[in-house]
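Hey, sorry to bother you again with one of my protein questions. There's a protein on my desk that I can't quite get my head around. No rush at all, and the record is pasted right below.
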Amino acid sequence: MQVNRRHFLMFIGATAGSLASGWYPQQPGESSAMAQANIIPTSNNFGSSFQPVKVSIPLAVDNLTIAQQIEQYASYEVKDDLVLPEGFTYDLIAAWGDRVGDSRFGYNNDYLSLVETAPDEGYLSVNFEYISGATWMQTYQGVVGNQLPFAELIAIAEPNEGEIDAFNLEDDELKAKIERVSQEGLIDQGIGVISVKRNPEGKWERTYSDADRRITGISGSDDPQRTLKSTGAAVAVFTKPNKLGYEDRLGDRIIGTFQNCAGGTTPWGTVLSAEENYQFQVPEPVMADGSAFPPAAKPFDITDKKLGGCANVFGLAGNKYGWMVEIDPANPDDYGTKHTWLGRYRHEAFGIRAEAGKNLAVYSGCDRRGGHLYKFVSSQKVFDPKDKSNSRLFELGILYGAKLNPDGTGKWIPLSPQTPLDPVLPSQVVGGMVILPESDRAKGGVMKVSSDEQLQPLIEQYRTLEDLYRGDSYRQTQGAILIDAHYAASAVGVTCTARPEDTIVNDEGTLFIAFTSGSTGKDGGPDKEIFVAPDGEPGYEYGWIMKLEEEDSDPASLNFTWSMLATGGEVAQGGDGFANPDNLTLDKAGNLWMVTDTSTSKQNNAVPTRTKDGKTLSESKLSGVFGNNSLWYIPLGGDKAGQVYPFAIGPMECECTGLTFNADNSNLFLSIQHPGEANGIRQNMAEETREFELLATDGTTFDQQRRVPIGSNWPSGAIDSPPLPGVVVIRKIDGKEIAEDLLD
C-alpha cells in the first residue's frame, strides 16, 4: 500500500472490509504543514539536516530562556499524526488488513528489518506483536470484513472473570466459536515478509513477490510444511518420553510464533524475531524437567477490554514459546527456526556481534520488571560474517546472564548445570520481591519470595542448577534450564534490571541497551544499587540507555564495563527530556536513534498540580507531561555528543517501534503500533483541553493548556475512520540523507 502522508489509499481487493467500509482516501496535505506547527523558534545551530520538533515539555536543546520556555509552552496541541521536522514527509507502505501472500498484514507491527537484495529493493520483515483487545474488536469487522461472536463470548465468560478453558470444553458449538476468535487473534500476530522497491520518485512501494508470506501464531496447524523447526538443548526436552508435564505430541516441531516484538538482522541476511510476552497466550511456568504446564493453566480470556489465551483452544505447549525465531526472508519456504540455546524468556530484541575469527555473540534482554540481560556465545567461530552458514552457530554454545556491579564493572554468569545457586535477594531489589523456581520441584513452577529468610529452603536443598532441574542426560538438564531461563538466572544471582528492551551493537563492538523503566511491579523490580534516579534514589520510572563494553573487546569475554549514556526524565530533574526508551538503531555514521514507550494508559494524563497533600506526585502519575511517544536522535561524536534531540512525535495513543534505515540512510522505516489503543476510533474529531503544571529547565513551575485528541483516525485522518497499525517510510523531501550534516 503506497500512501503519501495523510493520503490513505485502501488497497483494492485486499479485504472485503476495505470495499464495504465506506472509508475513502483523502487528498494529501502539504508535506510539512503539520511539522511547521510544531517547530520551536530557536537559535539552536543544530545543523542543516533537521530542526528538532517541539515536544510537550521544555528541553535544554531548545536553547530558550526561562521566559521564552514559559511563553512557548504555555499552550500545546497534540496531533493525531506522525509529526516530523520541516522538510520531511512520510509514505505509508502497509497497514493492518492488507494482503500479504495468502494471508493479511497483521496487527501492532513492531520490529522492521530491511534486507536489501539490490540497491533500492529488498525484503521488509515485520513483527506483529499483539492485539489491542478493545480497539481490535471494535474495528475488526470493518477492516477484515468478517463478523466474529465477540459480544456473545464476552457475556458467556463474564461470570468467570472472562476466562474459559476451551481446550477441555465439551460444548463443541461454543468451542468452535472460541476457536474462530482465537484463530483470528493469532493470525494477526507473528511475522510478515513483504517485498519492496524504491520507485523513480524516491518512494518505496510493495512489489508482491512470491516470497511475500505470513508466519502466524497458528502456522503449521493445517499444513505440516509450515511448522517451525527447533534446534539446541531444549529439543531434548521437547522430544523426551514420560514428561512430567503436558505432551503436545509434536516432537521438535512447533505450531506458529506469536507476541513477536523487536528483533535483529544478521550480517548474512537472516532476521531474528523475538517472542516476548508469550505468557498472554500460553502458560509461562514449567515443570522441573522443562515440560509445559497443561493448556488449562492459561485459559481463553476475553472481556470488552482484552483478548488473550488464544493458544488454549489449540492445545499449544507453553514451553515452545518465548524463543528467538530465525527466518531467511528471501526463502519463500522458510517458516522459521527457534534456536533454543538463546534461552526462553520475554525476548525483546537481539544485538548481534559477528566478526571474522571470533565467536558469535548475541545479546538480548528479558522485558519485564526485574528482567535480565543475556548473552549467547557460540561454541565455534565466525569465518565470513556474510556467509549464511553462520546460522549453524546458533545451534551450540553457552547462554550467560549479566551480573552488574555498582562500580561500573560486571561479569557474565553461565546458565549451565554446574553453576552454583546464589539467588537474588529480595532486599537487593526495588519492591523487595523476587520470583524464583519453586523449591518443591515436584510441583514445578515458581514462587514469590519477599524476605531473604524465605530463601533458606531453596539454598539448603539445592547446590547447583543441575540439582534444581531434572533430566535423564546432560542435554535434557541443560534444555530444562534454557526453557526456564529467567527464573534460573535469578537463582544464580544474575542482576535484576529495569525492563531491558532493545540491544544493539555498533561497529566497534559496543553494546547499547535501552532500559525502559526502573519501577517495580508484579514481576519484581531492578537492583537498587544499579538502577537509580539522577538524585541517587531507586525505583526510577523514566529509564536509561546503557553502554556496555566487553573486556579486550572480545565477544566471548566473561568481564565487561558499563555506564549510563542517557537518562529519561524532565531536564529540571536531571533527565534528558524523554521518558521510557525502547527500540534503538544506529545510522551509518554510528549515531544512535531511539523511540520511547510510555504506556498508553499514561500518555497525556492531566497533571494540574504536581503535589497532593503536600507531597510530590510519583513519577508514574507525572508521566502524562511527556505527551505522545516520540523518536529521538543522540549523536555519539562531535561537540554535541550525548545530547538528545527530538526528531518525531507519534499519533495518538501509539508506540513508535522498529526504526531502521536503508543502506544509504535516505529513508527511515518506522512502525506505528496501536494508534487509538485506549479510546479506539476518534469520533467526530473529538478532543479536550487538559491542564498541566510543567517545569522549565531550571525547575520553575508554570501552567500549560494542552489540546488532546480522544482516540485516533490515523493513518487516513478522515473523520470517524478506524485507527490502523502500519509501517511508514520517512524521507527528506529533497531526497538527501536523513542523517546528513547532523554534526555540522
In short: Residues 1-37 have pLDDT under 50 and may be disordered. The CA atoms of residues 534 and 574 lie 6 Å apart.
